[in-house]
Specification:
Elements: H1 4-18, E1 28-36, E2 41-45, H2 58-68, E3 74-83, H3 98-105, E4 115-121, E5 124-129, H4 130-133
Parallel strand pairs: 3-4
Antiparallel strand pairs: 1-2, 1-3, 4-5
The structure holds zinc ion.
Length: 148
């Protein structure tokens, strides 16, 4: 899969992405960084809207950037989220929301596993998998009958 050095790189990229967050309403700034199976890294930040429902999460921002640039699957994603003035050295875990878990599910690599890194500082993270966060999920193969 990916080594510790790459995981820390992704976390670093997520922190950099968070700096571009547009969160004037919640003041909860989130950054994400996705490593694609073709070896590229895409950053994303949460982008809020005065019409709250039009808000998009950092994870989905990174995902749509990656896919719209030709990526087909994701190896890993790092996420960092916290209120605007949080102490970045000691963050609470901010997991991807349900909608983002489903969007990430669409781009599972053929290995069937995607690593999720939830940062608690620029050098520390909790590691889990998409499968652990979204068990018994619905995905593209459930619609394979349409291809017959
Ligand atoms: Zn989300």
């Amino acid at each position: 899969m990916i080594n510790t050095e790459m995981k820390l790189r992704l976390v670093e990229e997520a922190f950099l992405a968070r700096e571009s967050s547009y969160a004037p309403y919640s003041r909860f700034k989130v950054g994400a960084a996705i490593l694609t199976t073709d070896g590229r890294i895409f950053r994303g930040a949460n982008i809020e809207n005065a019409s709250y429902g039009a808000t998009i999460c950092a994870e989905r921002t990174a995902a749509v950037k990656a896919v719209s640039e030709g990526a087909e699957a994701f190896v890993a994603i790092a996420v960092v989220g916290a209120e605007e003035n949080a102490n970045l050295e000691a963050l609470d875990l901010a997991y991807p929301c349900g909608i983002c878990r489903q969007v990430l599910r669409e781009f599972l690599p053929t290995s069937g596993e995607m690593i999720i890194l939830v940062a608690t500082s620029p050098t520390a993270f909790f590691e889990t998998t998409l499968h652990a966060l979204l068990p018994h999920s619905f995905g593209p193969e459930d619609l394979d009958y349409l291809m017959e």
